[in-house]
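$ run holo --ligand "guanosine-5'-diphosphate" --emit tokens
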Amino acid sequence: PSTALCYSVKGPEKQYVGFATLPNQVHRKSVKKGFDFTLMVAGESGMGKSTLVNSLFLTDLYKDRKLLNAEERIHQTVEIIKHTVDIEEKGVKLKLTIVDTPGFGDAVNNNECWKPITDYIDQQFEQYFRDESGLNRKNIQDNRVHCCLYFIPPFGHGLRPVDVEFMKALHEKVNIIPLIAKADCLTPNEIKKLKDRIREEIDKFGIKVYQFPECDSDEDEEFKQLDKELKWRTSRTVTLSN
Ligand code: GDP
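-- output --
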């Protein structure tokens, strides 16, 4: 914003209209431009990924989806499919991109099935780096993956090797939020056991999952309370997807 420190000529009194208006200008500009948010969803087919995304954002992002039969899934390769929607809430625009990874974990041999996903994430970092180093930096589109929801099946007794491998391959590149898929199929007791087991394994394998950042000590009490509650609910993040 290029407002110089100057006097307002309007009105009888002289008044500063300088840098004190900067926060408003920055806020107005950001709101006008909107925000980019890219969410990746990963997990086997049938875990409820599309249902969760559709209900989170109240849209139908999967209208043209082709479902594979069991035979086709044996040799399934992992694809990366992007769905984009523009959402507006109280005047704030959000360009939401959902990166879907159909085929992940579906084949009989799931060796290195996370590779196309890590390659995709790296490519987005490289593209952003190139755009930022270029001359036209005004309209850069941020396609980096900001968050990954990882669906863990509810039927096992903890993490499977493919879950560990996937999270280890991605945890340095993206914020991972592990979810227990279809947790409504389990009793509260079973959920607790599975959650504890998964947390133990996450620690054991040194996997870093997303943690809420610390809230500033000078925030007001109400905000601090809200922050505490959120952290408690998602305590060391193994969330339920239903
Ligand atoms: P995707 O292949 O991972 O995208 O899975 P879908 O969203 O297509 O869901 C597969 C099936 O599971 C559908 O029949 C859904 O109705 C059902 N489903 C989705 N989410 C849940 C859930 O949280 N609990 C239960 N019990 N079923 C669900």
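-- notes --
The two ends are 45 Å apart (CA to CA).
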